[in-house]
Amino acid sequence: MQLVYVFDAYCGWSHGFSGVLTEVARRHPELPVEVVSGGLFTGARRVPIRQFGYIQGANAKITELTGAEFGAAYERLIADGEFVMDSAAAARGVAALRVAAPDRAAEFAVAVQRAFYVDGLSLSEPATYARIAEEAGLEPGPVLAALDSPVDDFDRAAELGVDAYPTLLAVDGDRVTVLARGHATADDVDRRLSVLSAR
C-alpha cells in the first residue's frame, strides 16, 4: 500500500494540510508517498488573484482551523491583486523536485507551499525551485533542467477521480480509499488507516 497526496501548490487548504501530511509521513515511514499536482488554476482560472475575492477570508479560516501561516511576504506579493497563480507552472516545479529525490516528494510539496504562502515567492519562477533545492541539500542544476519536462500529473489526478484539493488516498493495488479530503487531522488519517489494515 502507498499514500497518494493530490494537492495544488496554489491551494490554501492544501497549505493548511501541510502539517498533517508531514505528521502522517513521520508516523508511517513504511508507506511511500506519491505526490500528484492538481490543476486548480489553469485555463480560464489563470487570472489575476483579485478576481478571487474569497481568498483573504478563506485564508483566515484556514489559519483558524489548521494553524497554517500566511506570511507578510505573501501578503505583499498579492497586495495589488495582479499576481497570477499558474498551477501548470507549479506542477512542473513540483515534478522537477520530485525527479531529483523521489522519496522526498511529500517534503517538497510542503516546501513549495511554504515558498509561496510564507516567503511570498512565485511558483512560476525557476529561482524559487533553485532555492528550495539548495535548502534541501540538492544541486539546483538538475532541478532547473527538469523544469521543462512534460508533466502528466493532471491526468493522474483525473485517473484517481480527484477534483478537490487536498485529497489523501491510500492505494493498494486497484483499491483506492480516501483518507482525507480538505481538512483532517493526523489522528483522523490514522483511524482510517487502522480500518484499512483490519480488513
Tell me what the structure shows.
It contains nine helices and four strands, in the order βαβαααααααββα. With 199 residues, the protein is α+β, with helices and mostly antiparallel strands. The protein has a four-stranded mixed beta sheet. Helix 1 (12-27) packs parallel to helix 2 (55-66).
List the helices and strands and how they pair.
Layout: E1 2-7, H1 12-27, E2 33-37, H2 55-66, H3 72-78, H4 87-100, H5 105-117, H6 126-135, H7 140-145, H8 153-159, E3 167-172, E4 175-181, H9 186-198
Parallel strand pairs: 1-2
Antiparallel strand pairs: 1-3, 3-4
The total of helices stands at 9
Main β sheet profile:
4 strands, mixed
Overall helicity: 40-55%
Going across the major beta sheet, what is the strand order? Answer: 2-1-3-4
Report the count of strand segments: 4
Q: Report the sheet-strand fraction.
A: 5-15%
Strand-and-helix sequence, N→C?
EHEHHHHHHHEEH
Structural class label: alpha+beta
Distance between the termini: 13 Å
* Radius of gyration computed on alpha carbons: 16 Å
Reading off the top of the CATH hierarchy, the class is best stated as Alpha Beta
- What's the average pLDDT? 95
CATH architecture: 3-Layer(aba) Sandwich
